[in-house]
Amino acid sequence: MRNEITRRFLLAGLASVSALPALARAPDRSIRPVLRGDADPLLRLKNAARSVEDLIREAALGGRLSYTVADARTGLVLEARGPGTLHPPASVTKIVTALYGLDTLGADYRFETRLIATGPIENGVLRGDLVLAGGGDPGLDTDRLATMAGALRQAGVRKVEGRFFVHADALPRIPAIDAGQPDHLGYNPAISGLNLNFNRVHFEWRRGGKGYQIAMDARARRYRPAVTIASMKVVDRNLPIYTYSKGPRGDRWTVARSALGKAGSRWLPVREPALYAGEVFQILARGEGIALPAAKLLDGVPQGKDLVVHKSPPLREILRDLLKYSTNLTAEVIGLTATRARGVEARDLARSAEEMNNWLAGWLGTISSRFVDHSGLEPENRASPSDILRALVRAESDGMLPSLLKDIPLRDSRGRVLKAHPLKVRAKTGTLNFVSNLAGYIQLPDGNSLAFAIFISDDARRARIPRADRENPPGAGAWNKRAKRLQQGLIERWAGLYGI
User: Fold this and answer.
1) Which of 176, 269, 407, 462 has the fewest CB atoms inside 10 Å of its own CB, making it the most exposed?
2) Would you say the pTM of this structure is higher than 0.85?
3) Would you say 138 and 193 are in contact if contact means Cβ atoms under 8 Å apart?
4) Nearest Cα residue to 194 out of 109, 303, 115, 294
5) Rounded distance between C-alpha atoms, residue 402 and residue 320, angstroms
6) pLDDT tens digits, residue range 218-237?
7) Would you tell me how many other CB atoms lie within 10 Å of the CB of residue 86?
8) How many angstroms separate the CA atoms of 239 and 486, rounded?
9) Closest by alpha carbon to 349, among 194, 178, 185, 467?
10) SS (H, E, C) 182-217
């Protein structure tokens, strides 16, 4: 007699069983026989559920593995391992941030960036000051600023008689998301109410007959104006590769000549994003025939008439990009904006994250997770698979979050994407050095779905990494690849045991 466990059979049987806690752990081995050879992929998946211990042994990661998986509709936990264990959540934090933003701001919320005139326009002359006022838009880029400069000309402005200000007080000014990261990492920029190009500047170099030609520009798809708010100097040394210092008006960088090679480029963080946006707008306005003085920071609420208003895409589209590209600045801006909308004036990320923790506890009930930012970059963030799973199950009912998460490809043993794989996974990755997390939904061939959260971390190896090596420490890349194979093995195991 063949003894086959199906998801529907399991769920039906559970209704008559009172000892629910015992059901949090499923059998370590499938009771189905394992097929050999090149069987149909759907049939192979049904019959190839392996023990968790075999998967862990094969991955050879060390550290800690915690996970939980449940029926996405009912929340019934099917299997778990240390579900309450706290790990660094890394970018899985962005799932919570996305839900926080949706619940507080709404899916149709738009950020606004304004050009404000403090006086009248007479014969093409603005008899007053011009203010570029940010609303926190994390997606504002050089091309959109160029559109605003063109709209300013269409509004009749040919000359500004007064001063040119930038206003960034819609959000607190924060010099870096994580002060413990190396200075040159572009994913750790400053935050303000006026952001541009994810608060990064593009550094490009090319070796010529007389040394290196270098450029620092604010490039987007159509425009790439050179800027002076950030400067670079090539120096003769081996290490460190980069040094940073704050100049009287902008960022001052040096780079080791020995590290450059023939040519290349990278994005560097900007620490004065409002002045960066002001310089770029000044250049773009000049291209429209409008001469502006150098930008100055404006404190207080700008007064005057809106000449141009740029609106961002709706929040749902911003969140889709956030969960696909995992941009830290976007996550922090959304979190800070949601906190302010809740009436809390948070002057730093930790205070804003505390309000997000309060919201999550109210949304889910008691939680053990504690976030100190909205992106997951700070190493002090802690979350449990159980809390993340509960958030996923609650969010599944309205369908918004599953549609925003990105598709996670499943691969064969050689790393090639399996386009015909019977499972579809939509999830958020979370990666730090020796941290690899994955949380989201598994769509089963029968149309039903599972919600899951997998956290893998090796705190001891993380603690041994010097600050200078945090961009790419030895062994981290290979460790992460093995972690991803373990995650896929767990997903296929669960589908084999509970899904088909």
Assistant:
1) 407
2) yes
3) no
4) 115
5) 10
6) 999 999 999 999 999 999 99
7) 19
8) 37
9) 178
10) CCCCCCCCCECCCCCHHHEEEEEEEEECCEEEEEEE
